[in-house]
Specification:
Order of helices and strands: EHEHEHHEHEHHEHEHEHEH
CATH topology of the largest domain: Oxidized Rhodanese, domain 1
Number of strands: 9
Strand order of the largest sheet: 1-5-4-2-3
Radius of gyration: 18 Å
Helix content: 25-40%
CATH architecture of the largest domain: 3-Layer(aba) Sandwich
CATH class of the largest domain: Alpha Beta
Shape: globular
Number of domains: 2
């Protein structure tokens, strides 16, 4: 990747995970199954998950339910509450943490981002998600995994975030990536000046993350300028974390707008660009 800065390791293949398991190195597996049409992933987890994986509830452990709607559909959890979750999941300070879902890691990226934001150094998504594990012929376990709790300390602040007013105050040189589908970008409207880069373009047909050089070329062709402030959003701060993951792998330094378009719209003070056919 000539001309690009060194990129962090954001993913791990099934083969690499199996090799890591054989070494006995500290490892935590997190199952983060969630999707918009079926937000409750626990039944699928109980029916079959990677042996040793702990279930993570995106709605209640990776978000802060009950917070005011003005904070967006999936507000970031309180640091103290998230620390309790990290400890309950059995994560040690030296662990490699591998997260996965069954949806090309578009939801498990939320766990990846939050754990990195909390200061954990080695967090990866399982490349190809759960499907890659089963397609490789590996067994699944049923039931509930309850690990031994830890005393890990966390501190939010490793990853960059922006609030609505900071997004509104961005100068003309700054760039915004809208990670939603093209249909929602055009039909529901978007933040003025945003570039549409659906997260589905970050993976191949098997749900595996594109190579770093290919990811970088994709974003360059979409108009991303290296070295210019770059911010990402989606509807609610879930899929946009996958955009942050992909951009990080590609050598960029993205900032997450966690409240997303949902918070932007609810605020009511900021402009929205709507395609002409939908203007009223």
């Amino acid at each position: 990747m000539t001309g690009a800065p060194a990129s962090p390791e954001v993913s791990i293949t099934v083969e690499e995970l199996r090799a890591l398991q054989r070494t006995g190195a500290p490892l935590t597996l997190l199952d983060v199954r969630w999707r918009q049409d079926r937000p409750e992933g626990l039944p699928e987890y109980l029916a079959g998950h990677i042996p040793g994986a702990v279930f993570v509830d995106l709605e209640y452990e990776l978000s802060a339910p009950g917070r005011p709607a003005a904070e967006g559909p999936h507000p970031l959890p309180d640091p103290a509450a998230f620390q309790d979750s990290v400890r309950r999941w059995g994560i040690g300070p030296q662990d490699t943490v591998v997260v996965y879902d069954d949806l090309k890691n578009f939801s498990s990226a939320r766990a990846w981002w939050l754990l990195r934001h909390a200061g954990l150094a080695d967090v990866r998504v399982l490349d190809g998600s759960l499907r890659a594990w089963t397609q490789a012929g590996h067994a699944l376990a049923e039931g509930f995994e309850l690990p031994e709790a830890t005393e890990t300390q966390i501190r939010f602040g490793t990853m960059k975030t922006a609030a609505p007013d900071e997004i509104a105050a961005l100068g003309p040189e700054a760039q915004l990536i809208d990670a939603r589908s093209a249909q929602r970008f055009a039909g529901d409207g978007h933040i003025p000046g945003a570039l549409n880069a659906p997260v589905t373009g970050n993976v191949d047909e098997r749900g595996r993350l594109l190579p770093a050089a290919q990811l970088r070329q994709r974003y360059l062709e979409l108009g991303v300028v290296p070295g210019v402030p770059l911010h990402c959003y989606c509807a609610s701060g879930v899929h946009s974390t996958h955009a942050v993951l992909a951009l990080s792998a590609a050598g960029f330094d993205p900032v997450l707008f966690p409240g997303g378009f949902g918070q932007w719209v609810h605020d009511g003070r900021h402009a929205i660009h709507v395609s002409p056919q939908r203007e009223l």
